[in-house]
Amino acid sequence: MPHHNFTSETEIHRIGLGLIDRSLPKSDWTHAAHFAAALWLMRYRPELEASACMPDFIRAYNEATGVANTDTDGYHETITQASLRAARAELDRYSASTPIFEIANALMASPLGRSDWLLAYWSNARFFSSEARKRWCDPDVQPFPF
């Protein structure tokens, strides 16, 4: 399956910092960039605790780029927390010396690289509900492995 190939740690830093300071071009905020930012936060800013701060970072970034956070658009809590759990599991498979861009590439080459990977665990109705956007909703298709 085609996936983004990150080429350097500098690229990952640009994405992570660009999310936090809301300078990342909207066109660069892709599925791969979401995972890259999560991995960056976990490796380079562990004091921020990704599961606690990523929601606010994404909401603020969305607003800065003209995306409203509503019941039907913008920030999605279940996607964010599920993706953070998956990113943590991937990060933990590698040594602390493995460059994040290599980990991000491996993650994107896995089933997690598909933007619809979460639909193996959640039904469309539950996953795309306003409730799942606002708070964590447990999967209803099969248990979440992360």
Report what the structure shows.
Helix content is 52%, strand content 0%. It is built from seven helices and no strands. Helix 1 packs across helix 2. The longest helix has 16 residues. It is globular. The two termini are 22 Å apart. The model has no long low-confidence stretch (mean pLDDT 95).
Please give the largest β-sheet: none
In N-to-C order, the SSE pattern is: HHHHHHH
Structure class? mainly alpha
Number of helices: 7
Strand content: under 5%
Oligomer: single chain
Low-confidence parts, pLDDT < 50 over ≥5 residues?
none
Number of domains: 1
Number of strands: 0
Quote the average pLDDT.
95
Specify the overall morphology. Answer: globular
| Termini separation | 22 Å
- Helix percent reads 40-55%
Based on CA atoms alone, the radius of gyration comes out at 15 Å
What's the short story on this structure?
By secondary structure, the chain is mainly alpha-helical.
